[in-house]
Protein: MFS transporter
Organism: Rhodopseudomonas palustris
Amino acid sequence: MSAVRRLLAGPERAVVVLAFTQILCWGILIYPPVLTMPPLTADRGWTLAFGMAGFSLALVISGIMSPMVGGLIDRHGGHVVMAPGALIGALGMVLIALGEPWPFYFIGWALIGAAMASNLYDPAFATLARLFGSSARRQIILVTFAGGFASTVGWPATHLLLQHVGWRGTYLVFAAVLAFVVAPLHGFALPRTAARTEGTVGANPHPVPQQPLRPEGRPFLLLAMAFALHALILSGVTSNLLAMLERGGLSAATAVTVGAMFGPAQVAARLLDFMLAGRTHPLWIARGAIALMGAAFAMLAFVGVSFIVAALFCIAFGAANGVMTIARGGLPLLMFGPEGYGRVIGRIARPALFVQASAPFVVAAAVERFSDAAVLEIGMLAAIAGTICFLLIKPPPAVERR
């Protein structure tokens, strides 16, 4: 009973709240455009590229705002930032659904960009770091474990809504969920009390640095570059993967079946990482994950597309991405410490989000200009470059345990 009371009344409540809201936020803010854009642009007489430009704008706005949002969470807590951000996102959804002139459409996406900056993984990680200090990695893993189901929930829910209420009704339903479910949970259910600095060393499953590094210079730049390369791979490939598999000879149904393996592999890898927490350094996890991505790209590029190869690629790519998300939250915490963590992770996220915004168009243009094989080789080279960045990072010396 004491464990249940602690879960409901103590800071651990943040894990339950954020695990649930991350599924909703990712399922509403990130995953729907691939399904909603075709009927939206057809209804308004726009090209698909013009419609997707709104989504790219949202990612750019998110990148611009991320350090500021992280700094606000450091000072005031997640409840002060994440709840208003969800309401702003709801307003953006309403503008997209009801605002006919195209300027309202882009204003709506700009507001959604603000919601992304204040409601996705980075602000959730910053909130957990403020509550749990340097021992927050376990809580970060739990939240990302739940967030891995966002595509499992988001895509089927979006498909169902499109069939029954159309794209406008879909965005209005999303607005209602953000305003009446996500915002109240973030505003009233997230704990207010920041973690005490005493005792965090003993609670941390990883060696605590003697002196955290300053978030600047070579280590910071290498970390930001490595995660930006990961964003290039993730955004560019996932937005074009199914089409590339079909062009490689798989049927549309088979390509969808293979692509569906990405989510479960991602969740399984996060579960394994959770089970090994305390025995594996986040830096080695990041090195291994992005190297696995490179191997997956090499296999698909040089062996060729078949059901087995494509399935192995999606499983390896999903597993690697699953733990890379954890590394993006845990590694900066271990290297730079919990002090000012929200702003630090926001600064790391900024170039990654800029790259994520442009990657789908860059990769699509590369496919048209060159070939699918060339794009896969580029993905392999980007993974190798990311691995080199992680290998060049030297973590700070750890405190000796007695």
Remarks:
- Confidence is low (pLDDT under 50) at residues 197-203.
